[in-house]
């Protein structure tokens, strides 16, 4: 199990330990549920008040529901948080990577949401989770109230070769000599603020997961124009993969009902600080209640 996304059973076990560590950071009553989908049973974390509006939250590539919940836990006061683990991109996810060339991710997410029987949900997606949230919103617009995209994939993509050239040497150095210095030189391209757990998790994650061979395509102008629900797009100005300024410019030009935030001095992973967590919670809550 999992040989298609992990390099070894040891790697899977290590990622399972990281999942539990990040889950332990969450000072909330958290439950999990296995829900049926067309692609197999999916693991979902649940937190917050079930009487509040449902907010489906999709994590970034090679992280998990627990990682995301540890950063957005303040939203649990105002919403029922539903956090599924994305197939192929989480130790708790279905151990299969779905195609980016069809609507597989949207069909998977539809199955997850069906299990909770809401008429509509709000969606919040980070990075690859933002891509999936946007794709679902295009496929099932009647099921989405509002859409929040944080450093999303699939709106503007920096040249892949540039990113590879930047990261190849730091990745090779860390692979063959996993010292603290080499780790810092590698994760500095991703982390805005240093965090021991996030840094060492990323170092392990890069080595533990088999590198995805496919990346999401960039949305066409027409696809962005078809996002008819209110959208909040938050981008990072120093994001190596999805540079904030051109991403915001494209979202503003083509998404009909969009609010935007450009995070200054921020890399792909926004600050892992209490100040930012509280700001993000307030910004999302203000948008959803506006």
**CATH fold-level label:** Rossmann fold
CATH class reads Alpha Beta
Q: Report the order of strands and helices.
A: HEEEHEHEHEHHHHEHEH
Question: What is the number of helices?
Answer: 10
Number of domains: 1
Q: Can you tell me the CATH architecture? A: 3-Layer(aba) Sandwich
* Tally of DSSP β-strands: 8
Q: Would you identify the CATH H-level superfamily?
A: Alpha/Beta hydrolase fold, catalytic domain
Estimate the strand proportion.
Answer: 15-25%
Helix content: 40-55%
Protein name: Alpha/beta hydrolase
Organism: Gracilimonas sediminicola
GO cellular component, one term: membrane
Pfam families: Abhydrolase_1
How does this model look, in words?
This protein has a single domain, classed as 3-Layer(aba) Sandwich (Rossmann fold). Helix 2 links the parallel strand 3 (54-58) and strand 4. Helix content is 40%, strand content 16%. Helix 1 runs parallel beside helix 2 (65-72) and helix 6 crosses helix 7 (196-208). The chain is of the alpha/beta class and 290 residues long. The protein has helices at 9-24, 65-72, 104-114, 128-139, 160-176, 180-187, 196-208, 221-225, 244-254, 274-289, and strands spanning 31-35, 42-48, 54-58, 80-84, 121-126, 144-150, 231-236, 258-263. It has an eight-stranded mixed sheet with strand order 1-2-4-3-5-6-7-8, sandwiched between helices.
Short description:
This protein is of the alpha/beta class. The chain has helices at residues 9-24, 65-72, 104-114, 128-139, 160-176, 180-187, 196-208, 221-225, 244-254, 274-289; strands at residues 31-35, 42-48, 54-58, 80-84, 121-126, 144-150, 231-236, 258-263.
């Amino acid at each position: 199990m999992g040989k298609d996304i992990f390099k070894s059973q040891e790697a899977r076990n290590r990622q399972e330990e990281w999942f539990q560590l990040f889950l332990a950071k969450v000072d909330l009553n958290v439950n999990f549920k296995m829900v049926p989908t067309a692609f197999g049973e999916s693991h979902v974390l649940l937190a917050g008040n079930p009487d509040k509006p449902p907010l489906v939250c999709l994590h970034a590539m090679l992280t998990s529901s627990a990682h995301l919940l540890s950063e957005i836990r303040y939203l649990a006061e105002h919403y029922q948080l539903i956090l599924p683990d994305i197939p192929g991109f989480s130790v708790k996810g279905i151990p299969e990577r779905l195609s980016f060339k069809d609507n597989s991710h949207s069909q998977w997410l539809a199955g997850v949401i069906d299990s909770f029987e809401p008429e509509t949900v709000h969606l919040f997606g980070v990075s690859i989770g933002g891509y999936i949230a946007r794709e679902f919103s295009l496929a099932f617009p009647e099921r989405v109230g509002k859409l929040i995209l944080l450093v999303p994939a699939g709106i503007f993509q920096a040249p892949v070769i540039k990113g590879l050239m930047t990261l190849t040497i730091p990745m090779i150095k860390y692979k063959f000599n996993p010292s603290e210095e080499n780790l810092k030189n590698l994760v500095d391209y991703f982390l805005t603020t240093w965090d021991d757990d996030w840094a060492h998790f990323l170092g392990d994650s890069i080595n533990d997961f088999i590198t995805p061979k496919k990346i999401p395509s960039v949305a066409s102008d027409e696809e962005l124009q078809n996002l008819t629900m209110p959208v909040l797009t938050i981008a990072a100005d120093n994001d190596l993969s999805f540079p904030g300024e051109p991403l915001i410019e494209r979202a503003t030009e083509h998404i009909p009902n969009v609010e935007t935030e450009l995070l200054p001095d921020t890399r792909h992973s926004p600050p892992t600080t209490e100040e930012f967590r509280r700001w993000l919670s307030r910004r999302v809550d203000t948008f959803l209640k506006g």
